[in-house]
């Protein structure tokens, strides 16, 4: 079943053509990534999906229904953890539910059983400053999935982490994703991250963006904890070459 379908979507902001012709889809339980040069409009696509912007042309549907400002089909996780420093972790992760009108007691009852799976048991009443970067990202992700939306939008969620923590988070996230099968759309600049986590990858051109490649990732899961297979290395090189052609360079 298709959760998200974008057909020939275009957007002009002022005198700048940002998106020229974007067509992509995400099926239920699928993990899809978007790669593209800096400034290509990857995060702009998320702004369209969350209702912060509205396309000039084309169609966007969620479960076959037109996407409108009032439709709540997507849970969004930004690049930073965006945790409120004055709130304890439990209150941070339930904030999205409370904004939706869920009573605090019910929101906490939904959240607490998930703390173990997210590696946060014992930190429910700590403040964000008392947690490591990886733990804060797990808390932010828990807040995102707790909203129970059909699809998760992740905008470079591990980009601010150091290399070791980022790799640990990617491995942890893949394990959680395999268990829960969250429908996920990821924006990333990291080719290796896209290949390691995704079922399919869309590559965008320079602005005004269009889809210049759609690539399936055939590597079996799990993809962490064992040597990277040669086909994954070859796919990384292929994707990097596509991206470099957008800047006039080649491998």
SS elements, strand count? 10
C-alpha-based Rg, rounded: 18 Å
Structural class: alpha/beta
> What's the mean pLDDT score?
88
- How many helices? The count is 8
Largest sheet: number of strands, sense, barrel closure: 10 strands, mixed
- In percent, how much strand structure appears in the residues? 25-35%
Note the run of SSEs as H and E.
EEEHEEEHHHHEHEHEEH
Distance between the termini: 38 Å
| Inertia-based shape | globular
Low confidence ranges: none
Helix content: 25-40%
- Spatial strand order of the main sheet: 5-4-1-2-10-9-3-8-7-6
In words, what does this structure look like?
Helices cover 32% and strands 25% of the residues. The chain is α/β, with parallel strands linked by helices and 251 residues long. Among the domains are: 82-149; 206-251, no CATH class. Strands 5-4-1-2-10-9-3-8-7-6 form a 10-stranded mixed beta sheet, sandwiched between helices. The N and C termini lie far apart (38 Å).
SSE blueprint and pairings:
Layout: E1 2-13, E2 16-27, E3 31-35, H1 42-49, E4 57-62, E5 65-66, E6 74-77, H2 89-93, H3 95-99, H4 104-111, H5 133-146, E7 151-155, H6 163-180, E8 184-187, H7 191-197, E9 200-204, E10 209-216, H8 230-245
Parallel strand pairs: 2-10, 3-8, 3-9, 6-7, 7-8
Antiparallel strand pairs: 1-2, 1-4, 4-5, 9-10
């Amino acid at each position: 079943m298709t959760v998200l379908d974008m057909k020939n979507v275009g957007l002009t902001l002022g005198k700048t053509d940002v998106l020229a012709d974007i067509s992509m889809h995400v099926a239920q339980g699928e993990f899809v990534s978007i790669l593209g040069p800096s400034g290509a409009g990857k995060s702009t696509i998320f702004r369209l999906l969350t209702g912060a912007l509205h396309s000039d042309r084309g169609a966007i549907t969620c479960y076959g229904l037109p996407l409108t400002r009032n439709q709540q089909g997507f849970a969004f996780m930004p690049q930073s953890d965006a945790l409120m420093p004055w709130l304890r972790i439990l209150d941070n992760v339930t904030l999205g539910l409370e904004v939706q009108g869920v009573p605090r007691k019910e929101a906490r009852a939904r959240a607490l059983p998930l703390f173990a799976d997210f590696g946060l048991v014992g930190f429910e009443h700590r403040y964000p400053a008392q947690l490591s970067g990886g733990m804060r990202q797990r808390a932010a992700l828990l807040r995102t999935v707790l909203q129970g939306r059909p699809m998760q939008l992740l905008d470079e969620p591990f980009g601010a982490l150091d290399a070791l923590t980022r790799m640990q988070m990617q491995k942890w996230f893949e394990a959680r994703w395999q268990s829960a099968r969250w429908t996920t759309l990821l924006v990333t600049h990291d080719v290796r991250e896209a290949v390691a986590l995704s079922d399919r990858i869309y590559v965008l051109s320079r602005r005004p963006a269009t889809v210049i490649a759609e690539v399936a990732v055939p590597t079996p899961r799990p993809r962490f904890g064992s040597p990277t297979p040669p086909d994954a290395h070859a796919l990384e090189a292929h994707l990097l070459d596509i991206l470099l052609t957008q800047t006039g360079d080649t491998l």
